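Shift notes (night). Ran Fur family transcriptional regulator while the centrifuge was going.
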Amino acid sequence: MNMDQALKLLKENGYKLTKQREYLLEILNHNRSYLSFNDIWKQFSKDFPKASYDTVYRNLYSLEDLGVVEVNRMEGEKRFRFHCDIEGHHHHFICRTCGVILPLTNCPIDSYRSELAGHVVEDHVFEIYGRCASCAV
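Came back to this:
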């Protein structure tokens, strides 16, 4: 996802392009790693000191519903970032040092199909955390 794609999706779905919404997208666009709400709020509130927490939360979850933003739970809190460019179901490797995110195309749920015979898997979460090759040295 990039800024142009995000703006296009918002327009197509009837959202007004307010300065606050555009600035929120700019924050996400300039930082490609996952950001906590507090990280986003610190940047956002500098330019919009009268904005409420609720405004930012509502917009982040609207962006998630549209597929602009993906949400991940890291270290006990939700984190947000622009949806990556990989189409379809996939997972990620996330570097805890620099924040680099690598998409993974293999899904581990496939290896559990025989153990789950007769069960219906409705959703799952799988992310790998560690240090990327650059940070591991």
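The chain has two domains: 3-82, 91-136. The chain has a mean pLDDT of 89.
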